Amino acid sequence: MFLIISIAFTLLQWICAFFLVIVSIHGPSSLPALTLFWLILIQVILWSSFIIFRRCEYKHATVYLIFLGIVTTASAPLIYFIAEKYDAYRWNNILSNTKIYNVRDDLLLTSDGLPFGIRFSFKAEFPYTDYNYITPIIRPQSDRDSTSIGPNDMWKLGYSTNPPLKREYYFRKGVTYDIVFEMVPGYLIPRHGENAASGDDEKMKYCLQYPIENVHFLTRDKFEQIITTDIADNYLVMLHGTAYGDISSGQNPEFTRNKYNPVDFYNTYKIKNIEECRPYQQQ
Fold first, then answer.
1. CB 241 within 8 A of CB 98
2. Coil, strand or helix: which one is 193?
3. 281 and 204 in contact (C-beta within 8 Å)?
């Protein structure tokens, strides 16, 4: 009887562990490690109790073993709660202790000196040796209250670090990184995976992603009006993965040091004869 009870709870606990690992795909990143620790711990407790109760002459030993199996199995949801709390603590610790300084920005130019985008750079030091997806969110102040991504919002064309990273976005504790991002408006996208902004063939490397009628919420006329906005201003900056410019967490807003005008970028793309994307290039 003791063996049957122990095997039954063991199978149930393995099923719970499998479910927790599956949930971790869209849940706390620490959940798989905590689940493994939890599974080993409760298995040791369960099978140690099996050995003790099988050899003893307690009148209610079977009841005790069943109760212990229920308690250890029912603790599975607690692991998810602990993982959530731990990840939140660790994330807040990263935000609080990642150092960002010497922030700089200037125009990203084409080979013949036309404004193509924004080069955003800074120095960073990280509190952990770990993967940390860090990327700027740069948008005109005219879009600052919008909850959706606007066509003038800048997106990452490419980035580099000094010293170079051995793995993408894997930073080491105690190392000062000089990080440079090349940003372009969201409606300019690479053709066929190309992502370099140098040379005289921008026309062949990029296309302009106009909204598709009856698919996107913007009409073509409204889209044209937005991307030809003629207002030079400091762009709003938030550095995802850090507390820099994170106004949602109570931080002060941050802005580019220089002023940029959306229509300047648009005019460059027209001078370069960059064409509208065909449907297959927008996928």
1. yes
2. coil
3. no
d(C-alpha 219, C-alpha 227), whole Å: 12
Q: What's 250's DSSP letter?
A: T
Secondary structure (H, E, C), the chain = CHHHHHHHHHHHHHHHHHHHHHHHHHCCCCHHHHHHHHHHHHHHHHHHHHHHHHHCCCCCHHHHHHHHHHHHHHCHHHHHHHHHHHHHHHHHHHHHHCEEEEEEEEEEECCCCCEEEEEEEEEEECCCCEECCCEEEEECHHHCCCCCCCCCCEEEEEEEEECCCCCCCEECCCCCEEEEEEEEECCEEECCCCCCCCCCCHHHHEEECCCCCCCCCCCHHHHHHHHCCCCCEEEEEEEECCCCCCHHHCCCCEEEEEEECHHHHHHHHHHCCCCECCHHHHC
User: Which residues on neighbouring strands pair with residue 254, listed in sequence order?
Assistant: 237
**Beta partners for 130?**
171
Global pTM reads 0.72
Token pair recorded at residue 199: 């040379």
What would the two tokens of residue 256 be?
Answer: 């580019």
For the stretch 50-98, pLDDT in tens is: 777 777 766 677 777 788 888 888 888 899 999 988 888 887 888 888 9
CA atoms in the 13 A half-sphere facing the CB of 195: 9
pLDDT digits (tens, 9 = 90+) for 173-186: 989 999 999 999 99
Give the whole-angstrom CA distance, residue 85 versus residue 76.
15
Burial zone of 234 (CB within 10 Å; 0-12 exposed, 13-18 middle, 19+ buried): middle
Residue type, 200: D
DSSP string, 125-144: E-SSSEE---EEEEE-GGGT
Please give the Cα distance from 159 to 194 (Å, whole number): 14
Provide the residue type at 67 as one letter. F
